[in-house]
Design a protein that fits this description.
Layout lengths: L1 H15 L10 H18 L15 H8 L9 H15 L8 H5 L5 H4 L7 E7 L2 E3 L6 H4 L2 E3 L5 H6 L3 E2 L6 E5 L4 E6 L12 E11 L5 E17 L8 E5 L5 E2 L26 E7 L12 E2 L28 H7 L1 H4 L10 H5 L3 H11 L4
Helix pairs in contact: 2-3
Length: 369
Amino acid sequence: MQAQSATHSRVWRLRAAWPRPLDHLRDPDTAALETAALVIRMVSSYLEDPDALLSEAENPLVRFALRHDGLTPPLSQSEQLKLLNDVCAGAGLEGNSPSFHALMASYLMRPLWDMPELAFFDVCRRVNQGWARPVVEGPGELSQITWDGTLDLTSTLAARFGMLRPAGDIWVGAKMPAVFRVILTPVVPLTYDRICSTVVVGPHIDLAADGRMHIARREVHYVLIGVVRHRERQDPELARFYGETGLYISPTMARKDGVGRTYISDNWRVGEQGTYTLLYAQGCIPYECDREFVSATIADDGEESLAAMNLCTPLQGPVCGALNVDEERKRQAAESDAIPGLGDLGQFDQLGVSAGLQQALTEQFRGEN
């Protein structure tokens, strides 16, 4: 019970006690560093161990994100400049002017994105008469989803699973991660109701000790927990975060005049023209909370209740809730028990895997026995 309370306290602190503004740096640099730090904090709060990344003591971006917040002393001017220099050097960026996009794609983020809990795909490969899970290089990069809004997100995600062609002997299933990320560049503006939640429907793979593979359909609901609008020309990044029931998290410090958080604004809408990083976590949105600004203002140094911080159990019923895998497995036992050629498994085999993932995995396993 004490351990659970400590975990809840840490989760509250990661989501609510945002790092103090880097007020001695230029606005674009502040926006890039702080939005990157907030993404690290938000994603970490959904991990089984919220402090899993604290071991990355030599990583300046992770160290800043997890060890400095609204409950710790502010960084001095010299400390802020050192942070900027260390992050740019660690990310391999020239000119000491980082962007959020560059930081997310840098080596500094690999300890987070490559975590097993965040892997979107479950890859199995035929070996002799059975199946095995090969080591996949760069799982974090492969787990990043791109979306242009042409199809709904659920359909876009479902098309990532299935039998890998032309390789033929690689099967890509769904791991249902704690959090996954989507890079959205809408062809036409999207309304919030098309973005705020999605369902991941895919084949869940069970691999037996003898190499036999069993597949069952699984369905898990996800909710939008974070948005960062990428920098455009002279405009800095813009960020917005939510709890797993859809409530808009707005720390009071971000509302005070003169604080310097240029990336906090209500004067934009998710889905407008631009490029976004979207973060989704397992959860649900009640019907009354599917609007963009149903706000839950959180004080940076307050003792807000866990209920207001959206640390609730996801609702069950017609609105949301994961499909019962055991029942689904029984229902589909006849078609998922023995898999000689994986040719009769229905929609997932017919959909196939996205071209980018096919190329990446085929290149990795080329020439292997």
